[in-house]
Amino acid sequence: MNLQTYLLAKFKAALVAIGAPEDSPAPLSRSTRAGFGHYQFNGAMALSKVLKQKPRDIADKIVAAVEFTDEVEKLEVAGPGFINIHLSPAWLAKQLKQANADERLLIEAESAQTVVVDYSSPNLAKEMHVGHLRTTIIGDAVVKTLEFLGHKVLRQNHMGDWGTQFGMLITHLNDKLAADSAAETALSDLEDFYRAAKVRFDDEDGFADRARENVVKLQSGDPECIVLWKTFVDVSIKHSEEVYKKLNVSLKREHIMGESAYNDDLAPTVAELKQKGIVVEDQGAQVAFLQELADKEGNPAVYIVQKSGGGYLYATTDLAAIRYRNNVLKADRTLILTDARQALHFKQTEIVARKAGFIKPEQSYEHCPFGMMLGNDGKPFKTRTGGTVKLAELLDEAVERAAVLINKRESDLTADEREVIANKVGIGAVKYADLSKNRTTDYIFNWDTMLSFEGNTAPYLQYAYTRIQSIFRKAGVNAEALQADMQLQAEQELVLAVKLLQYVEAIKQVSSDGTPHVLCTYIYELASFFMSFYEACPILKDGIDEPTKNSRLMLAQLTAKTLKSGLELLGIETMEKM
RNA sequence: GGUUCCAUAGCUCAGCUGGAUAGAGCAACGCCCUUCUAAGGCGUGGGUCGAAGGUUCGAAUCCUUCUGGGACCGCCA
Predict the structure, then answer these.
(1) How far apart are CA A233 and CA A124, in angstroms?
(2) How many structural domains compose chain A?
(3) What does the pLDDT look like over A110-124, one tens digit per residue?
(4) Stated in angstroms, how far is A60 CA from B27 C1'?
(5) Together in a domain, A287 and A406
(6) Domain co-membership, A512 together with A405
(7) What is the CATH number of the domain that holds A565?
(8) Which of A17, A329, A345, A539 could form a disulfide with A65 if both were Cys (CB 3.0 to 4.6 A apart)?
(9) Measuring CA to CA, which residue among A567, A511, A563 is closest to residue A105?
């Protein structure tokens, strides 16, 4: 049941009935405050001019024309012509009972699409740092939401496993191995390894030349270089996998489709672009001039697909990736989660790819950008100036902090239980702090905010869930077997009930816009409404009659299911106790 | 120079395709634990939505200009 679309259909029919034009706007939204009902229909004002009638008169006619049976308790016209929709508690109770009996919480699947989601994509030359958090976490939440709605999702981890820097790295690795060091040991800290290689590249006689030679050899498929490269990449991937595991992210090895995977297709891609006249030679390079993105004077934007020396660039790789995703993977939609700095690049890439027919008109190509991570001083985190925070270390710190907090509290939890909880709480807090922000602009990375466990945070949501579990333990009731009629009496019950039925609205928006923060907001409000209900509406206390008790248990149960479902989509774990 | 994104409470952020008195969290200040877990609840204070015009029944939201900031712009990704 989707309340919004259900009501909207009714009102659209009513508009037709009163003789409004076919495509009249039909704005129906959640009400902004309690006194204005649950939803409001604001279409009357806009129709005033078209129908040449007073907006309030139109509103009255709509109210008379709209056909409801038992869904609505009352419709009232207010202000200039708002129609406030008050849903009937009995009808809402019926919907909730059905939702509670349904595994999918009565959320119908969308018509399935094949969706490619390109996310995480770390550079294997270095260790994952806090800058990789957003793409990894947001991407994973979007992926899980799309899957929940019935889509076929293909995760693509477009790892940076190719490029000139690997010449330097494999040369350094070669020397380390020659000095009898094991690859795992030499590469135990990628950051150190990279720094050491860079120092040698800059300072050591002959090293830079050897590195450059190795790049050429690597690109021409020299077996020795390939072995070194594979060794390096393999160890680096293992580092990433550890982070993914800690983060509770669903990315696996089979989702890796690194830049190197497209090597063989780069030349054919450029050849096709040349053949179609989309790129031309300019100053020795293969270039597309894009009139679509010209400046005021009419100078076209420049997009290089092949360097003057014949080398390829990320533009080439991205175009080849598009061909693969559309031709082989048959993507209906492609979502790419990278930082906002690459917005122009992807806009250009799409224009070129569409011209070349790599993307068909019915296929979408959506860059989902987000801002950079800034330090407390508002300046960007720099990667090689010592300011880098390794992702693995951030996560460990989060878990430690959570453990300290848990150990301060009195409880009957065992040491093992505490450890599991500390992990879920700490990791959840880090993920939620990031997921709950949508801004495409930069955002301030603050250790304390990110690891805070109070207010609008993951622990708050997890806590709400455990409170419900605690009620069921105490009641000795099997939550699954619970079958009772619901009665929504207290205001807190009604507010919670409507919120529960709006879950579908939140996740549909996440799937269409790629914005998990909408789901975060929803879950937080749901948890918050539950907390108020919990304080105001006793369940197991003396003097609560059986029907009320069972009704409230049902409400609590559906809240728990919804919280758990939503948190799962966000990649945040729940627990029975905390 | 060009393109583009942004500016909302002391701080960090929401605000859906324009809708009624702009919302949270943190911080501050009050209450509420012999009663279902106080990582909680209830309440108070705090905003000329960067500025000025415009569009209209109605603007934080759309358009223009300005101010301030960020990012990007032919061989890095």
Answers:
(1) 7
(2) 4
(3) 899 999 999 999 999
(4) 48
(5) no
(6) yes
(7) 1.10.730.10
(8) A17
(9) A563
